[in-house]
User: Fold these one by one.
Assistant:
Number 1:
Amino acid sequence: MNKHQKGIITDIICIIFTIFLLLTSIKYHLRGGDGYHIYTGLITSFICFIPFILRRTKVMAFPFWFTMSILFAVFFHGYGSLRSLYDRVIWYDIITHIVSSITVGLCTFYALMVVEKYDNKISFGKNGIALFIILISLTLSIYWEVFELLMDVIYETTMQYSPCDTIGDMVSNSIGGLFVALYMRWFLGTHPDYDVAEEFELHPKLVNFASQYGGQSD
Amino acid sequence: MIVSGIYMFLKFISLYTLGYPVFNHELQGSAFYEERMEVNTLMMLPPAVATFASVVFALVLRRWVKKTELSHRAEVRADE
C-alpha cells in the first residue's frame, strides 16, 4: 500500500468516525442527555475530522499510524463518555489511557524531531529522544490528573473516582509512554536518515517558518 | 514533575497502609463526596503545587538562560 492509498483510507476512517460520533451525540441529546457529554461528543467528532482537513488543505499529512492513534484515542473517549462506558466497564479507563498516552508519546516524538531538525543548537540523540518521550509523557499524565482534581474541586464532578483509579491511570500512561519510547528508540536505530518534514509532507510555508524560528538560513 | 509522580505512588501505599479508603468501591456515591475529595486531595496536593511551580520555574529558567546567552554574546563581541 503506497502513501496515497494510505491517505485515502485515513480520510475515509476520519469521516466514518466523525459521522458516527456526531450521530451518537445527536441520539444522546434526543434521549435527554446532559450538556457535558454532548459537548464532549461534538468536540471529539470535530477532532476526528482535523487530520482530514489538514491533509486536504495540504497543510500537512499525518502519518498513517499516528492518525490512527489520534482517531482511536479521541473516538474511545467521545464514545465512552456518550455511552457511559467509563462507569459501566471497569477496564475501559485503562484502554483509553493507554491509547491516549501512545498518542501523546507520538506527538512528543514528532515535536522533538521537528525541534532537532530545525534548531541548530539542539541535538537530542536517539537515547535522548526516548528518554524525553518518557519524561514528557509522564509529566503530561500528571498534568491530566491535576486537571481532573481541579475539575472535581471547581465543578464538583467525578473525574477522579479514587486514589486507586488515579494510580491505575498513571500506570496505564507509563505503559503507553514506555512502549512509544522503546519503539522509537528501535525505529531511529533502524532509520538513521529519518526526515520528519518529509514524513508529514509539510507545507513549504510551514517548513520556511520552522527554519526561520530554529535559526536555519538554508 | 517526575518526582511528584513518584510521590503519588508512595502516597498511595501510605494511604492504603494507614487504612484510608483508596478503592473505587469504597468511595462510590454522592454520600462519599467529602471523603473522596479528602483522600484525592491528600494524594494530589503536592503534584498540583508542582504543576504550577514548574511553570513558574520554567519561565524563570528561560529568562535566566536568555540573559546568560546575551551576556555570553556580549563577552564574545568584546573579545573580538
Note: Chain B touches chain A at residues 1-2, 4-5, 8-9, 11-12, 15, 20-24, 26-28, 33, 36-37, 39-41, 43-44, 47-48, 50-51 (CB under 8 Å).
Number 2:
Amino acid sequence: MRGPLKHKPADQPPPRFCWWCLLVVVTFHVLLFAYVRWRIEPALGWQRRGPLFSLTVGFFNESLKVAGGLLDYCARALAQLDHSSLGGALAFAGLASLVFLVTRLALARLACQVIWFAAFLPALLLLAVRQSQGGQVFTAGLGYVLGLGLALAFDRMPQAQLWPRLVACTFLSALLCAGAGFWPCALFVAGVAVFGIRWHRTWMIAVTGLFAGIATGIGMTMLGGQDLATLFNPWGSRLQLALTAGVFLCPALMLLTAVLVTRRASSNAAKMPQGARGVSPPGGWNPRRPRLVQALVAGLIAATATGVWSGFDRQEHTLALIEYAAHHGDYPRVLAAAATLESLPPPAEVRLHRALFHTGRLLDDLFACPNQTQLELLPGVVAGPEACRAQAETLLELGQVSEAEHLAHEALELEGDRPDLLRLLAEINILKDRPEAARVFLGVLRRSPNHRAQAETLLTTLRTDPRQTNDARLATVRSRLVTTDLPHDGMPTETLLKQLLHSNARNRMAFEYLLAHYLLTRELPRFAARLPQTDGFRWTSLPRHCEEAVLLHQRFGGHDASLSTIPIRAETRRRFEEFTAALEHGAIRSAEGREALASTFGGTYWYFFLTHPPEQTAAAPLSK
Amino acid sequence: MNRFLRRRSLPRLPRLPGCARGRTRFVVYGTKSPGLTPWILLGLVILQSAGVCENAPIASSGAVSANAQTSLPRLSPDYTGIVLPPNIAALNFRVEEPGTCYRVTLRSTHGEPLPLESRRPTIRFPLKRWQRLLRANPGEPLMLEVSVQEASARWRSFTTVTNLIAREPIDRALVYRLLKPLYSVYQEVGIYQRDLETFDQRPILENRHFNRGCLNCHMTLNRQPDTFAFHIRTATNVHPMILVRSNATFRVDKTLGYIAWHPSGTLIAYSANKLNLFYHTHGETRDVFDARSDLGVYHLDANTFNTPAPIAQTNRNETWPSWSPDGRYLYFSSAAPQSVEDFRQVRYDLMREPYDLETDRWGEPELLLAASASGGSATQPKVSPDGRWLLFCISRYGNFPVYQGSSDLYVMDLATKLISRPDINSDRTESWHCWSGNSRWVVFSSKRLDGLFSRPFFSYVDSDGRFHKPFLLPQADPEFYESYLKNFNVPELVDGPVVVSEQTLADTINRPAKRLLPTPASSAGQPLQPPAATDADRSVYPQ
C-alpha cells in the first residue's frame, strides 16, 4: 500500500456551454419519453406484472430483510407511476436524465469531455431493460445513479490520509450493498477504483470497499436465509440479468477506457507542442484520436439504439395489450390485438373468447381466429397461473362463482397479491355472501397507493350494503349464479355450462359458450340438440358458425330435419355447396388443394371440423 | 426546551384539552432522562398525531363522563366478557364506536391502572405495562373503561368491560402453519411459532428452503418444543417425515398421514390415506374424499412400522389417530368405505382402542360415539392432558372438518361418556383444536370472522368442563386480521420455543445426515401398504 495520497491535479476547466449539445440532450430525452409513452406503454407492463406496493410498515420492514431491499422498496414505489403510461414515461425519462447526468459528470471528472455523449449509452441500455417488460428498471436506474453518484461524491471528499478514506469507502460499500444490493455497490467500487487510478494512482481503497460490500451482501443474504445467487442476480431471469449487468458494466468499462486513453494521451502530451488544435484537457488528447474515439462512441450508441429498437418484443407487447384491454373491458381492442399474433397462449385465448362474446361474435368468428392453440374455452388449472386468472374472470361472469374462486386462488398463490386478483376475489366473496372475507381482500388492496381510493369506496359501500345490490355487474352475475351443487374434479366445461343453464335458462353467455364448446369439441349431435333453445334468446338470425354446423350436421349426420326455426341464409348454403364440391374433387388430398381450401374456407366451421381431430377430456363430475 | 420539559414533567392531566381541540397530547411519565431533546419529543408528538406510535398513557382522572351509556363498547376483535391467561400478550383492539378521541383505562385489583388516549380508534397497550398488570392479578377481574369523544366534544362513556384473568397460564408458544386458502398448487407455506407473551413470530421452517414443497401437519410430543415431527411433500415425489427428537433431526423416508405421538415418545401412530380433493359449485368450494385409510404404528427406536389389525380393519376406514395422555388408548375416527359418488354419506364413528405399551398388545375396540347417534361425522379427537375431556369435531359428513361449514366442536366427559356442545361454536367452521398442558386452555381454528380464513381462537376451560367465550389470538396491530390473506392452520400449543434452526431442518430435508428407512415389523402382522401417492394426494391441504 502506498503512503500518503498524492494530491490530485487541479480540476478541469468546466466544459464550455454548448447550445447544440443541450439541444441534443433535450431531444434525446424527449425521444426517450415518446418511445416509452407510445411504444412501450408502461401501463401495459404494469397490468401484466400486477405489482402490489404497500404503504405499510410491515411491507417496508420485509424489504429491509434482504440485501438491496431498501433500493428495491424505493424502486417499487417509483414503479407505481407505471399505473399510467404518461406517469411511467415521465418517471423513466427523469431517471434516464439522472443516469445521463451522473455518467456525464463521471466522464468530465476523467477529462473526457470530448466523448461527453457517451453518457447516452447507459440511458439507452436502461431503455432496453425497460422494454424487456421487467419491473427492474427503476431498481437498476436508481442503483446506477446511487452507485456512480456516490463514487463521484466520494472522490470529491477532502483528500486526507489513506486510512480515513479507506474506512469511509469500506463503510459506504457495506452500506450500499446492504441497502442497494451488489450491483450498485460494485459500480461504486469500480468508480472509486477508476478515479483512484486516474488521480491518486491507488486502487487499494476500491479493493477494500469491494470486499466489504461483498462480505456485507453475503452476510445479509445468508442471515436472511436467501440463496446466494439472489445476491448477484436478484432479477431472476437471465435476460434481465444480462441487460441490467450491461447497464452497470457500461460506465465502468467506459471510465476505464477513458482512463487508459487519457493516460496514454498524457504521456504523449509531453511530446506535443502547446496550443495544438482540438480539445485539450490536462494531459491533452491526441488531435487525431478524439475524432476516432468520437466516431467509435457514436457508432456504439447508434448500434445500441438500433438494438433497442429492433429488440422490441412485439409479441409480448401485444399479449400485454390484450390483457390490459380485457381488464378494462375494451373488447374490440382485444380482438384487434389478438388478430396480429401468430399464435395465442392459453390466457390470451381465454380473453379472446370473452371478447368475442362481448362483441357478439363468439358464434360468428370463433373459427376465424386460426391462431388459437388450445381451442378450449376453459382449459383449467393446467394452463398455468395467468390462464387461471383469465378463466376466473370468465367463470365469474358466467355465474360459476365457486369455480371462479377456485381458479382465482390458484392464481393468487402463484402470482401473488395482484390488485386485479384481490378485486376479483372481493367480488367473489360478496357474491358468496361473505362480505367480511371480501373486506379482507379489499384491506390488502387498500394498502396500494393506486388502489386505495377504489378499495376505500368499496369498503364504505360494503358497510351499508354487504351484498352490493347497486353494483350492476354483480347484479348481472348474481342473476346467473348456479343454484345447485355439482361436485366435480378438474374442469368439466360442458357440465358446468349446462348447470348454469339449468339454474338460469336465460343465461345467454352460458348458452353461447355451451354451443361454442360443442363446436370446438365437434359434438354436433349435442349441438343440434341444444340449438332449438335459441328461441329463448330472440335471435333473429343464426350466427354464421351455427349455420355452418347445422348444414354439416344435416349433410354428414344424415339429419334432414330443421334444427331451428330460424332459416339458414342462402349465402351460407351456397358456400357450403362449394365446400362439399371442393371436397368431392379431392381438395383435401393434395397440399395445393388444402391450401386452396384454407384460403377459401379457412374461417369456417367446416374447415375447422375437417382439420381438427376430436380429443377426449378427462374432467368429469363426481355425481349427477 | 423548557416548555417541553415542563410539559413532560406534568404529573397528571386534569383535563384533556388536546382532544377537545382536535389535538393529541403526549405525556411521558417517569422519564427523567435529560437526554430527551425537544426534537425527539417533537418527533414523538408528530408520530403520535399520525397514529404511528403506541397510544399515549394518560392520567385516568381526566375522563369526564358527560353521557354515560349502559351498553358495552363494540371492540374489534371482540375482547369482552372473556377469560384470559395471565401470560398473554396485550389484547390490542379497535373501538368500533364513532368519535374523535378515545380513552381507555385498563385496571385490575392490584397495580397501577393503565390509561390510554388516542385520536384513532385503534388501541395498543404498552406491552411491558400490560404484562405487569396481568402478572400482578391472576384470578382477578380485568376492567376496561372506554369513553369516546363525540363530534360535539361531549364524552360518551360505556359500561365497563369486565374480563377475568385466569390463574392458570397458557403454554408459552403457539405453533401453526401459515398458508393461503390453497387448492391444488402452492408457493408459500411455512410452519411458524408465536410467542404468546409477546407478538414475536418466527419461522420454524418455510418451504422456500426445499424448492417450494409442501409442509404438512406438525405434531409435538407432549407439547415439548424439542421433539416433534412433520411431513413434507417435495417436487420429486418424495414425501418423507422430518423427525426431531431432543433437537436431533432425522429424515424418515416413509410417507405417513396424520400422526400422533405416544406419550412415551417411542411410538407414532399414523394414518395412511388415499385422499381426493374435489370441488363444489355451490357452498364451500373445496372438499376431500378419503377413499381408503388405515392406521399404523411407527416404532421409533426399532425404526419399524406395523399395522395392527384392530386399527387397520379391511372393512373400515380409520383415520385421525390421537393417544390418551397415559398412552393406554388410541382414539380415532372410523367409517365404512363408500364410493366417491356417495361422499355425503360418509360419517365417521368415534372409537378408541386399548393399548399396552409393555406387551405391545391391542385390546378390543370401543365405540365412543356412533355416527348414527350423532347424525354427523366425528373427527379429530383430542384428549385433554388431565385425561378428563375428549374434544372432537362433528360435521355433516366427511373426514375433513375444516372444509365443512357445519363443523363444530364437541366435548365428551370421559368419566361419564356424556357429550355436550360447548358454547364456543359459531355458524361457521371450527376445527384443528389443541389442549394446553394444564388442560385449562383450548386453541382452535375458526372461520367465524369471515367464513373463509381460519383464525386461532382461545377458550378457557374451567374445572367443571365449561368452555368460556373464545377470543382471537392478539396481534400488535388490532387491524391485522382485516388484511391478512393466510390461514392459521393446525394451531398447537407448545411449552416453549422450538430451538432447532430452520437451516438444520432444511438440511435434514435436502442433505440428510441421518436418514431412516423404516422396515415392516415382522412380528406384528402385515405391513400397511399405503396407497401410492397421486396428484390428488398432493393437492390436499388441510387448512
Note: Chain A touches chain B at residues 57, 225, 381, 385, 400, 402-403, 405-406, 409-410, 412-414, 417, 429, 432, 434, 436-437, 439-441, 443-444, 446-447, 482-489, 496, 499, 622-623 (CB under 8 Å).
Number 3:
Amino acid sequence: MTTRPPQTLTVVYDETCELCRRCRHWLSVQETLVPVEFLAAGSPAARERYEDLDWYKVELMVVNERGEAWVGPAAFLMCMWATRRYRKLSHRFRSPALAPMIETFFHGLSSNRSLVSGMLREHRCDGDNCVPAQ
Amino acid sequence: MTQETSYLIYAVAAVLLTGVLARTLLRNGKVFLADVFSDNEGMADAVNHLLVVGFYMLNLGYAFMLFRTEEGATAVEATENLVTKLGVLLLSLGLIHFVNVTVFWKLRGRNDTSYNTPPVPATTLVPPPPVPGTMISPI
C-alpha cells in the first residue's frame, strides 16, 4: 500500500451511538487539513458500498479516495491526523512507549461505546448540526 | 562610588549587554530563518534584521527609561541602585530574548511538512468512495 498522503477522508461511523455522534460533530467543527466526509454506517450508501465487509458497523473506519481503509484504533489516529491541531500528536502517539497504551485506549473506548454513550446526555442531531437536547 | 560613576557604569553595561545579545540573536536567528525561508535567502536575512532592529529598540528604549534614579546619599546606596537596575534590565532582556526565540521557533514549525504522511499505514483495502461527477458513466 502506498504512503501517499490521502486527499480526502471518509469517516464511516456508528450513528446509533451518542459518543460516536458527538465525536463526529467534534471532528466536523475542527479545522482539517484534508476534506473529511462522514458516512453513517447504517445509511443505505454505506450498506451499498461496504455490505461485503461484515465488520464495518463494528469498528470505526476511515477510507481515503483510493479505497485504503484504516480500521479501529488506526482510524482514530487518522481522524486526529486530519486536523491541523492534532496532526503532530497523531504521529507522537506512535512512539514505542505510547502506541500500545493508545491502541488499548481506543480499542476499549470503541468496544465500550454503548456504555459510555449511556452516560452522556442525548444530543439532538439534524444533519450536520448537533445540539444538546433540552 | 559616586552617583556619576554609577550612571556611567549603568549606561555602558546596558548598551554592551544589548549589543552582545543582539549579535547572538542575529547570528543564531539566521540559522532558524534560513530553515524557514529555505527557498528565499533574501527574505530570511530581511526578517532577521527586522527582528534584531526591533530587539534593539525595545531594549535600549527600556534601558534608557530605567536610567533615571532617585538621589543616593552614600556610596552604598548608589551601588545598590546600580545593582538593582542592572538586575531589572537583565531580567527584562532575558524575557524579551526568550519571546524572540519563541517567535523563531514558531516560524520554523509553521512549514514543517514531516507530518504530512499518515501516522499509520492503511489497514486494508475497501471499495473507494465514488468520485463526484463519475457516478454515472457515459455510454
Note: The helical segments of chain B are 3-36, 41-67, 75-110.
